[in-house]
Amino acid sequence: MIGAGGEARLRTFVIEPGSDRALVDAAELWRSRELLYLLVWRDLRVRYKQTLLGVSWIFLQAALATLVFSLFFSGMAGSSTTHLPYPVFALAGVVPWMLFANGVAGGTTSLVLNEQLVRRVYFPRYLIPLGAVLAGLVDAALGLGFLLLLALIYGVTPTATWFLLPLVLGLCATTTIGVAAILAALNVRFRDVQYVVPFFTQILLFLSPVVYPAALLSEPWRSVYALNPLVGVMEAMRWALGGGTPPWLALALTVLTTSLLLVGGSAFFHRTEREFADIL
């Protein structure tokens, strides 16, 4: 740097090992935001470069899933979805589900796939799973646009609560970041984690209200069921679209669970981060 008097000034950065109990350094992440942007952009380019369908695959995947769910599961939902047409109801669950499933899958393998980068260059390793999830958030934003279009086609009246939909997706992304951080760190040491995750993700699909409303369960099981953070996200998505009453309990439990996952996942990631280069 050149000072006011023309003299050269050097800025020195000292890299020190952090405390085992410390969380991920938010200030360091902010200073590395340009690298995060490059990681997200790289993931998006790799995903859609030289593809036949390109970005249209996002809409096709969501549309096919909604069509299948509407054909086979609309009867199971019964009259609990009368506030929304069932295709809109189903797509409101598919969009956050795709964000979670794709973000967890990409985040789990992110450190292993970036082995050379992790071993040779210093930077906050947390940026790698974070970038994988944020890349999926771009896809989810496009899916949200498709959801709003479908709602208009089915005659759903726009309301002010539609502006809350991006916040709900942000909550879903936060949940995904916490889970992805834990699984990414575990996958560095135990490589079979990446093979187990898709199996449990498919089970979680049916343990989340993607194709059916949480109202099908009676208390106290509904409250226990709401400990799944995706329950509050999906119920809030449908409420914001104009379906029923606000799911205050499910949303509060989701915020609590998401906070625990984010803090716990960040702490676990930071405690194991110094071992990544040696193990990889």
Structure, explained:
With 280 residues, this protein is mostly helical. Helix content is 69%, strand content 0%. The protein has helices at residues 26-31, 33-48, 56-77, 86-113, 115-120, 127-153, 165-189, 193-206, 221-225, 229-241, 248-273, 276-279. The model has no long low-confidence stretch (mean pLDDT 84).
Secondary structure tally, helices: 12
Structural class: mainly alpha
Radius of gyration: 21 Å
Total beta strands: 0
> Which percent bin holds the helix content?
55-70%
Mean pLDDT: 84
Strand content: under 5%
**Low-confidence stretches at least 5 residues in length (pLDDT < 50)?**
none
Summarize the topology:
Layout: H1 26-31, H2 33-48, H3 56-77, H4 86-113, H5 115-120, H6 127-153, H7 165-189, H8 193-206, H9 221-225, H10 229-241, H11 248-273, H12 276-279
Keywords:
single chain; 280 residues; mainly alpha; 12 helices
Report a brief summary of the structure.
This protein is mainly α.
